[in-house]
Design a protein that fits this description.
- The complex is a heterodimer.
- By secondary structure, chain A is of the alpha/beta class.
- Chain A has a single domain, classed as 3-Layer(aba) Sandwich (Rossmann fold).
- Chain A is built from 10 helices and 10 strands.
- In chain A, strands 6-7-8-3-9-10 form a 6-stranded mixed beta sheet, sandwiched between helices. A 4-stranded antiparallel beta sheet of chain A has the order 2-1-4-5, covered by helices on one side.
- Chain B is mainly α.
- In chain B, 71% of the residues lie in helices and 2% in strands.
- In chain B, the strands form 2 sheets. Chain B has a two-stranded antiparallel sheet. Chain B has a two-stranded antiparallel sheet with strand order 3-4.
- In chain B, helix 4 packs antiparallel against helix 6, helix 8 packs antiparallel against helix 11 and helix 13 packs antiparallel against helix 14.
- The chains are: A alpha/beta, B mainly alpha.
- At the A-B interface, helix 2, helix 3 and helix 4 of A face helix 9, helix 10, helix 11 and helix 16 of B.
- Bound molecules: adenosine-5'-triphosphate and magnesium ion.
- Magnesium ion binds next to helix 1 of chain A.
Chain lengths: 246, 402
């Protein structure tokens, strides 16, 4: 398996505070990876760096077969390269219908003129319907997304990610605020997604991570503390110390 | 396929039908048709239609895309200046040539140019025709400039501002600064646009001097109505499809749109420039009806009023902008024209000419705070009962959310 994304020796500080400290990380094509770590470990900041929201002070972030650098690219360019992101706080376009949210995310030309002359084909409508079925929102397509429950908004956002058909999905705390049943379905969606693309999931909930059944990276104070299977890292004394020492 | 479906949207059908009925009524009862509507009233109404058009532009850029531009009235004024240059030049040229017809020797082209220059720029102590009047003799070129000058200015300004990700109140201040700079520039006598005198006599159309103003006013009224109708349909088309989804997304959560892979800057630039062009066209139709344009028209306050109209009418829907512009500008004409009866309170007399601004300011505050959907929000209230019975859950949830 070839490396899809490589983050090497990246650091970033906010007003002197080192949020990310000499962090190195890589993920292969089609891999599912969980990232855990206490509050403030730098998990969200790590995603900010990959997606171009935050520029690191030093280090490299390279992408794809040709190892292109992501550091000088805008958020939109990075997204178009095939990196999709779900935010910690669900962010969907609340004023618009579930259907319109999904259509907006569908993988299509992103320039204004194409958007202006875009016509929904039956293929697109079928795709939206299939996605809606996958995220359990088939009956909600015409509702304003602002009226959805918290968990449904999370699903919609995951659906919008899948609609972009990215090569790498970054998913920040997808199960927050979900019921047990909703969580289980979310695990299914993510594992299904990981059969065709790489997925990085940030999550606090250990049960959820166990369900994902994948390699785990533990972040602490802005760098990687441990990496391996969930059992491996949870038995690591440093990890126990970090989690219990809080 | 989609263009057709836009025309079938209920609000488009209603607005276009009302516009047609209104136009036919005004034309039939105009002075030109022997009716009771005075020429000046027809002109006021025609101008109001132009204000509705620029308000739609403002709604697109602010209500839909979330860019609170406080400079769109400057683009409106620029459109007026561009057409005004031709109107004034072509008419002066005719006068000069007619006057010279009686002379024993036919005048040289240079003499004609000098005479035109003296006539137009005498008031600011000049006689040379400035370089920016180079094309003033050509109607097609000046018409092109009506579109190009606001368009290119908006493109350059927008490119600089959006590229540096200036947003929110900073962008508003920047657009206001642009407007101020432009109007201060126009106030200068040396700028080649006659300083604070502005351009005048614009109601007289070169080549149509014999046509009475009553007829001219009807022509311009109809042209304004057609422009408004086209502008409405174009805007409805723009906001209805995926493009509309994206710009509303930019308004509500710009960062999210970026992470979907859309270059937000390009969309903003597109809307900003397009609406500047629409504003320019509206201005070019407005000022020949007003008869005069001067830099005071483009003062920063005018662009702020534009935002006030849209807010009062109801931003984020096109008919809201139309209602706001028509309602407020007509009321404003009525109040400031001295036609509103003063109210004598015994100890104090309310002169509406002075108090109208206060009333307008208060309504703005009240509407923004208590009825953010503006006047157009009334239509939601009117159509609510039907929806409630169909989807009781939805309404209940809405009530909880708000
Ligand atoms: N823009 C910013 N300015 C200043 N400090 C920041 C900024 N963004 C993040 N931080 C700080 O960097 C550290 C890492 O934050 P980050 O949000 O990445 O943590 P996290 O691992 O996602 O935590 P959580 O589990 O709470 O979501 C925190 O101490 C946070 O306060
Ligand atoms: Mg976080």
């Amino acid at each position: 398996m070839s490396t899809l994304l490589e983050v090497s020796a990246v650091s970033v500080s906010f007003d002197g505070f080192k949020a990310i400290n000499d962090l190195s990380f890589d993920i292969n094509e089609g891999e599912l990876r969980a990232i855990i770590g206490p509050n403030g470990a730098g998990k969200t900041t790590f995603m900010d760096i990959i997606t171009g929201k935050t520029r690191p002070d030093k280090g490299k972030v390279t992408w794809g077969e040709t190892n292109i650098s992501l550091l000088r690219k805008t958020e939109a360019q990075i997204a178009r390269l095939g990196i999709g992101r779900k935010f910690q706080r669900p962010t969907v376009f609340e004023d618009q219908s579930v259907f319109d949210n999904l259509v907006m995310a569908l993988k299509k030309d992103r320039d204004p003129v194409s958007a202006l002359f875009y016509k929904r084909s039956t293929v697109d409508i079928d795709r939206v319907n299939a996605l809606a079925a996958e995220i359990n929102l088939s009956s909600q397509l015409q509702r304003k997304s602002g009226e959805l429950s918290h968990g449904q908004k999370q699903w919609l956002e995951i659906g919008m990610l899948l609609a972009q058909d990215p090569r790498l999905l970054l998913v920040d705390e997808p199960a927050a605020g979900m019921t047990v049943a909703e969580r289980r379905h979310t695990t299914d969606i993510l594992r299904e997604a990981a059969t065709t693309r790489a997925v990085i999931v940030v999550e606090h909930d250990m049960d959820f991570v166990r369900q994902l059944d994948c390699r785990v990276t533990v972040l602490h104070e802005g760098s990687v503390l441990a990496e391996g299977s969930l059992d491996h890292v949870t038995n690591d004394p440093r990890v126990i110390e970090v989690y219990l020492g809080r | 396929m989609r263009t057709r479906s836009v025309i079938y949207q209920p609000h488009v059908i209603v607005v276009l039908s009302l516009l047609v009925v209104f136009t036919v009524a005004i034309v039939s009862f105009s002075e030109a048709a022997g009716g009771f509507l005075s020429t000046s009233l027809v002109k006021t109404l025609g101008m109001t239609l132009c204000l509705c058009l620029v308000a739609i532009a403002m709604d697109l850029v602010w209500g839909y895309t979330g860019i609170l531009s406080l400079g769109h009235f400057a683009f409106f004024g620029l459109g007026g200046y561009m057409i005004g240059m031709w109107l004034m030049y072509a008419r002066t040229e005719q006068i000069v040539i007619e006057a010279a017809a009686g002379a024993p020797l036919p005048p040289t082209p240079q003499e004609i140019q000098d005479a035109i220059g003296t006539q137009i720029f005498g008031v600011v102590g000049g006689s040379d025709i400035p370089a920016i009047w180079m094309f003033a003799g050509s109607l097609p070129i000046q018409l092109l400039l009506v579109v190009l000058v606001p368009g290119v200015l908006a493109l350059i300004f927008g490119w600089l501002a959006f590229r540096s990700r200036v947003t929110g109140v900073y962008l508003s201040i920047l657009t206001q600064a642009l407007t101020l700079a432009l109007s201060l520039y126009l106030f200068q006598n040396e700028n080649g646009l006659r300083g604070n005198n502005g351009l005048s006599g614009l109601q007289i159309i070169p080549g149509a001097e014999d046509v009475p103003q009553s007829r001219i006013s009807v022509y311009f009224f109809v042209a304004s109505a057609v422009a408004l109708g086209l502008g409405y349909v174009l805007s409805a088309w723009l906001v209805s499809g995926k493009f509309g989804s994206i710009i509303r997304g930019i308004r509500d959560d710009e960062a999210r749109v970026r992470f979907l892979g859309y270059s937000v800057e390009h969309y903003k630039l597109f809307v900003f420039t397009l609406t500047a062009v629409i504003a320019g066209v509206a201005g070019a139709l407005y000022y020949p009806q007003a008869g005069i344009i001067n830099p005071a028209e483009m003062a920063p306050i005018a662009s702020i009023y534009l935002a006030v109209w849209v807010a009062i009418g109801g931003r984020g829907r096109l008919y809201g902008a139309v209602i706001g512009a028509a309602f407020v500008s007509l009321l404003s004409t009525w109040f400031t024209g001295g036609r509103a009866p003063d109210i004598n309170l015994g100890f104090y007399t309310i002169h509406w000419v002075d108090w109208w601004q206060v009333l307008l300011g208060l309504s703005f505050v009240v509407i923004t705070v208590y009825a953010p959907k503006g006047i157009a929000g009334i239509f939601d209230v009117l159509s609510r009962p039907a929806k409630t019975s169909a989807r009781p859950v939805k309404t209940a949830e809405k009530a909880r959310a708000s």
